[in-house]
Structure formats: structure tokens, C-alpha cells
Amino acid sequence: MNGNQRVCLIGAGPGGMSFLYQNEKLKAAGKKYADVVCYEKQSDWGGLWNYTWRTGVDEHGEFCHGGQYIDLWSNGPKECLEYPDYTFEDHFGKSIPCFPPRTVLFDYLQGRWNKYDLRKYVHFNTIVKHVTYNKTTDDFTVLTKDLVNDHDLPPEKFSHVIVATGHFSFPNVPYFEGIETFPGRVLHSHDFRQAREFKGKRILIVGSSYSAEDISMQCRKMGSDKVVISYRRKPMGFKFPDGITERPLLTKIDGNTIHFKDGTTAEVDAIILCTGYLYHFPYLSESLRLKTSLSVYPAGLYKGTLWMVDGNHKVFYLSMQDQYYSFTMFDVQAEWTCAVICGHKKLPDRKEMESDEAKWVKKREAVKDVYDDIALQTEFVCDLAREVGCKYNLDVKALFNKWENEKHVDIVTYRDQVYTSVFTGNPGITHHTPWFSAYDDSLETFVNQTCNK
Ligand code: FAD
Ligand code: NAP
Ligand code: MG
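Above: the input record for the complex with magnesium ion. Below: its predicted structure, written as C-alpha cells.
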């Protein structure tokens, strides 16, 4: 034993991998670091970026985590998520366009993880089944299972637990009258794997957020006949291309006929529920479970990260926010967590933590629109960066505001726009083909284009 804390890290997606990266950085600098055991139920790292064709359950009968589709492209500019200490230019050796397809982002992530050879810390095909906090010994007991051999592993003890299992996996599936007798396919966006399946079909999309927007556009791009989007609270209000329209919420389904609140009807062949996800942590004992709904500052977490309800300030949640910022936000949360666990950052007293958390929750309650959301998340990220003495300015609010504006200018062309990296000062290049007519999304084609600046 070297006296280090023994940390259980659950999940090897971008959030969990950031913790391993930050811990390795401490180790390389000769500073105190943690002994981390990372459990990952899938056979590879990457979380949602580890694409799977499977739906429902995985090869071991466990819940299938992945919910990305094969033709997914980044819905935000890469300049809004790039790591300051590992830019896209560092990885690819040149400028590339700003909205990469899935495989390009995954390649980029893996480049950073390989830099420190982090794979050795991950126990793949190993699912965490149960976590309890032991009051008397002030530690945690973790039960895991080797999925390949269908074998329960001996209980392990840890000083800290980090939950990095994401919150965009367990589908939120509402019921609509008549849906059980709809004669076509009904699926949640979690099970959507490729838009080509819906070529020539009339589609109903339920929801009015990112999945609704992108899956509608994908389906139309790949040749769906028409798409009707049904919103609960308010329409997205984009100038959608021909063949995509928005209607208020459906009231009932009668055969292929969908009835909407405004009295109109539509005939459809398939229904895709883009109705979001549940915060669901079935493997945590109840007092450790974050129970919340999507927001930029979920309650119960000091600095959006440290679980306040139980576990004696030794349970951390990464990336539980609604995500404008993503990879950089997870990274600074991970750096902060690492600093706290390893003793480089002292926590204030309980009262101060409570009032700090309450202050952020109050700010979140005052948010009025997406621009406020972006501003608040920027403040959150910069606050954590200050806490850890981060030497980079992680503020990309101006880029997010430009992105949000571009979407409202034209939802068809927003992915064709160019952004400038705040870390390299260089703009991305113009994509060779407008996104709406770009069918080749291979990494090779994307990275090897040499279009004008
Ligand atoms: P995840 O990526 O979900 O990883 C969690 C990991 O935990 C998984 O590997 C899972 O297998 C593992 N795990 C779960 N339960 C257990 C268990 N009991 N035991 C062991 N391991 C377990 N973000 C962007 O920035 N840009 C995008 O373009 C973008 N597109 C997206 C598209 C879709 C359809 C979705 C759903 C999300 C998208 N996101 C995007 C947001 C996404 O949440 C983040 O990019 C990122 O994947 C979150 O990382 P994470 O590590 O928190 O969670
Ligand atoms: P989300 O942002 O949580 O949105 C859920 C939507 O479902 C909301 O519009 C909500 O409506 C609606 N909804 C919930 N319950 C409903 C009900 N009972 N009836 C009708 N509508 C209901 O989830 P998401 O859109 O799936 O996005 C999740 C994440 O995936 C985001 O981070 C997003 O960026 C990411 N993503 C990225 C891409 C990409 O292109 N790279 C594509 C898809 C998703 P209200 O607004 O009325 O609450
Ligand atoms: Mg993770």
C-alpha cells in the first residue's frame, strides 16, 4: 500500500476517462494521485461514442447502454468541446471542418486517452451491480460481475466512488392513447440506429429537443417521405426544410392516423419517441442515488459534482448536467474531483458547501432561455476551472451563442459554418459538401479534405 486513496470509478465514457487522464497527469508530475479501479460493462471504452448496432439488451443480457446512430454527426462545433491541452490540430496535425461525424470525435477522444496509455486501468466487461456506503468504517462496498464468465466477483472496498455512467441511456417512454395498436414500428430514439431504415416512410417524431431535431433532419436527408414533429411545450421554431413540419402534442393514435391537439391529423408509418432520458442508477443504494431531471445544475451536488446527501463527501458524479459544454466540462469536473480526493484541494465546511450549492440552484431556477443556459454553464465551468487553478480560459460562450444563432438562421446549413478555435486561434476549414447532401461520413474523407480556409 502506498497510502493513496482507493477509488472506484464506474464507467469509461468521456467523463470517466477524464478522471483517469487527470489522475495520470498528477502521477506524471510526481504529485499525490489515487489508486483507481475503473469498471466498464462494455467491451470497449468511449461510452456513448462506442457505437453499437445492438438495441435492448447487450450480448450478456444487460441493458444496452449505447444510443448513438451510425450516421450521427456532432451537433455542436468541435471548437466548443476541444480539450485545451489536446486540440484537434494536435490530434490530426491540421485543420479540419467544424462538425465532425461520430467516428472522427471518437478517434479524437481515443488519441488523448492513448497519450497516457489509460486502457490498462479499465476492467472491461465488468458491470457494477451494487454500491453501499458503510457508516461504521466510512468506506464503500462494491459488488461487480464478470460478464463474459457470468461470474460474481468478490466484494471490493473503496475509499471513494465516482459515478460516470451518463444520463442519456435509459429512455423516458410516455404513453399515448392507441399506441399499442399502431400498425407500424414504434421506437425510442435510444434504439434509433440509422435513418436509412425510414427511407420512403412517413414519420411521427415526438419531442422538441436535440434528438427530435436531428433525427427529423437525418430521416429527411436519407429520404423519408415526410416528417411530422409533435411538441409538448413549444415548437423548436426552426425553418425546417420541405417535408418537415411541427404540430402540437398528439392526443391519440387510431390505426395509422395521428390526432393532434389543434384538431389536425396525419397518416404515418412509424413513430420515433425523442422524449429524452431518465436519471437512473439502479446499482447505487438509495441514499447515494441522484434523483433529478435534466438541467444545467441538478440539485444535491456541491460544485455540480460532489454528492451531498450521503457517503460523507466521498461520492462524486461526473457529467450529470444538461450538456452544452461537454468534454471540457467533464474534464474540469474530473480535475476538481481528483484534486479533492488526493488532498490537493480542501473542501470548505458543510455549511459553506450547502450555501454554494443553493446559490447555483437558485441561478438555474432564474434561467429563461437557451442563451441563459449557455451563460450559466459557462460560469459553472469557469468556476471549477478557477477552483483547480486551470491555466486555460475554457469560456467558449461566444461560440455557443453563434451556434445557437446559426441554427435559427438556417437549420439546414448550421453544420456548414466555420468556427475558430480559442486555443489555437485557427479557424476550421469549410466542409467539402454541405452537410445536408454529404453522404460519406467516413473518417478518412472527413479528415483528408483540403478545402479552402
Ligand atoms: P457515457 O458516454 O454515457 O458513458 C458512460 C459509461 O458507463 C458507458 O461506457 C457505460 O457502458 C458505462 N456503464 C453504465 N452503467 C455501468 C455499470 N453499472 N457498470 C459499469 N459500467 C457502466 N455530446 C457532444 O458533446 N457532442 C455530440 O455530438 C453529442 N451527441 C450525442 C448524441 C446522442 C444520441 C446522445 C444520447 C448524446 C450525445 N452527446 C453529445 C452527449 C454525451 O452525453 C456525451 O458526449 C458523453 O458521451 C457523456 O459521457 P459520460 O462519460 O458522462 O457518459
Ligand atoms: P432531451 O434534450 O431531454 O429532450 C427530451 C424531449 O422530450 C423534450 O423536448 C421534452 O419536451 C420531450 N418530452 C419528454 N416527455 C414528453 C412527453 N411525455 N410528451 C411529449 N414530449 C415529451 O433529450 P434528447 O433530445 O434525446 O437529447 C439528449 C442528448 O443527446 C443531448 O445532449 C443532445 O445534444 C444529444 N444528441 C445529440 C445529437 C447529435 O446530433 N450529435 C443527436 C441527438 C441527441 P419538453 O421540451 O416539453 O419538456
Ligand atoms: Mg464516463
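Notes for the reader.
The pocket of NAP (ligand 2) is lined by residues 72, 74-75, 168, 172, 174, 189, 206-212, 214, 232-233, 249, 274-276, 294, 323 (CB under 6 Å).
Residues 2-169+277-399 form a domain with the FAD/NAD(P)-binding domain fold (CATH 3.50.50.60).
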